[in-house]
């Protein structure tokens, strides 16, 4: 019996090499992780100088260049100051058409209703690149604030349309020339409530909406405003509908 035990005991215990294998694997893993970490730190701290140029300060905004194919292309794209970029946009035919359409079809109606004047404080929603902001300033309105989910300096600042960073009754008019401003919002009723909070009592809310959208459904979102005018206008060659409300604490009813 003793002989049998002595013969089987070496076979039942693993060889010494098998016991050392997991230890060697762990050491190799630690070494590879350390090499990868050092390589990443080196790449982050030693960016290729060819990707950046001293003549292009980092605080400037990127120009409207084609989509980059490499990381160096993205970093070395030509940049222009916001004012120069705005000058380019103003010179474009689309910008001019938009400004002319707003000045001819929208602003006179708002002035006629007493909702827009030179001293008016205007908040532009979904302002995009700032067409409406620039058109309002060109029309003589001095205090115009443009907001959107993405800032576009110098005309548009970033702001959450469901929670404006403005005090109550801070504006005389809330305006948007983007048909998707209210209908494309994540929470349209919340945006409507914020617009009513931001505009003073007796102030106006003017929104451009698609003609396919039922105007009564949009007006119903504004619980403390009444509809004062609805008219069809042409912007960028497309016919849209201008919905104008006045904040007066009453429930909006569209006939």
TrEMBL record:
InterPro entries: SAM-dependent_MTases_sf (IPR029063). Residues 1-11 have a biased composition (Polar residues). The chain crosses the membrane at residues 27-44. SUPFAM superfamilies: S-adenosyl-L-methionine-dependent methyltransferases. Keywords: Membrane, Transmembrane, Transmembrane helix. It comes from the Eukaryota. Residues 1-22 are annotated as: Disordered. This is Methyltransferase type 11 domain-containing protein. It comes from Urochloa decumbens.
């Amino acid at each position: 019996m003793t002989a049998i035990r002595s013969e089987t005991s070496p076979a039942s215990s693993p060889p010494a090499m098998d016991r050392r294998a997991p230890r060697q694997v762990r050491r190799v893993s630690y070494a590879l992780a350390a090499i990868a970490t050092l390589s990443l730190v080196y790449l982050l701290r030693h960016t290729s100088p060819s990707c950046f140029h001293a003549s292009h300060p980092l605080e400037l905004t990127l120009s409207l260049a084609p989509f980059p194919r490499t990381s160096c292309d993205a970093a070395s794209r030509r940049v222009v100051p916001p004012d120069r970029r705005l000058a380019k946009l103003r010179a474009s035919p689309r910008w001019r058409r938009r400004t002319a359409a707003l000045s001819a079809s929208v602003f006179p109606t708002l002035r006629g209703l007493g909702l827009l004047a030179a001293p008016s404080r205007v908040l532009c929603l979904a302002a995009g690149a700032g067409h409406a902001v620039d058109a309002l300033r060109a029309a003589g309105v001095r205090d115009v604030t443009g907001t959107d989910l993405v800032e576009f300096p110098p005309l548009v600042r970033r702001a959450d349309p469901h929670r404006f960073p403005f005090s109550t009754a801070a504006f005389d008019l809330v305006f948007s020339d983007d048909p998707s401003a209210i209908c494309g919002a994540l929470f349209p009723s919340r945006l409507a409530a914020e617009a009513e909070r931001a505009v003073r009592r007796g102030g106006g809310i003017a929104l451009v909406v698609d003609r396919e959208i039922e105007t009564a459904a949009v007006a119903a979102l504004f619980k403390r405003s009444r509809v004062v005018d609805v008219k069809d206008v042409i912007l960028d060659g497309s016919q849209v509908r201008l919905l104008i409300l006045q904040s007066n604490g009453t429930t909006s009813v569209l006939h």
